Amino acid sequence: MTLRQVVLDTETTGLSAEDGHRIVEIGCIEIVDRRLTGRSLHLYLNPEREIDAGALAVHGLTLERLQSEPCFGDVADRVLDFLADAEVLIHNAPFDLGFLDAELGRLRRPPFGSSVAGVVDTLAMARELHPGKRNSLDALCERYAISNAHRKLHGALLDAELLADVYLAMTRGQDSLEMAIGGDITAVDALSGVSWPPSGLRVLAAQPAELVEHQATLEAISREAKGLALWARLEPAATEAGGGSGHFD
């Protein structure tokens, strides 16, 4: 069964939809079966109201810049068509949902949740995985080694792209490498009977300090994954096949 997900982010004129603040930008990134498809939706919107100074400092979008853009009502069908039947991934979902429901309410349309397969709050997911730690998008990018150096200001499409990478990293189980082999063959099974090292490949033995660092990394991965790291499961099979820790040259 195909799993279609869409990562969504918005930028707004202020912090509260209840105070009449509006959406000024929407960014969406499509994921199908855990693969980025390259399909996206990116829209700037005329909010028809002033933008708070605090919001302007976050995204840099001025009312003057947005006055020639369509209003939400002009693109509502386009947004909902792109999201139809998808599981929608949003970081701090209550914030964005409040604005989306308010915009749809002005059009006398049903709430956002009725148009999609479901909504996943990636902030709540991150807090469960990393209790007591910072779980902002920037913090998660740093934790999962995802570069956000080009993120000078917030932007809906840019933030959706980063969140897509974060989500895939955050939900990548240790079994994912086994699944990538294909069929019912696991990575451990694939090593059985393998001649090691492959012909023509020179292997340099790891130094003691490197072995210590390697072991520390495996232990950190195991703690994060709440299970034995994949390499720790593969290493006995690799050793049996004639290999071990080393450098490939």
What does this protein structure show overall?
This protein has helices spanning 53-59, 63-66, 72-83, 93-106, 122-129, 137-143, 156-170, 176-181, 187-191, 208-225, 230-240, and strands spanning 4-12, 23-32, 35-44, 87-90, 118-121, 203-205, 246-248. The chain is α/β, with parallel strands linked by helices and 249 residues long. The protein folds into 2 domains: 4-170, Ribonuclease H-like superfamily/Ribonuclease H (Nucleotidyltransferase, domain 5); 176-248, no CATH class. A 5-stranded mixed beta sheet has the order 3-2-1-4-5. Strands 6-7 form a two-stranded antiparallel ribbon. It starts with a strand and ends with a strand. The model is unreliable at 174-186 (pLDDT under 50).
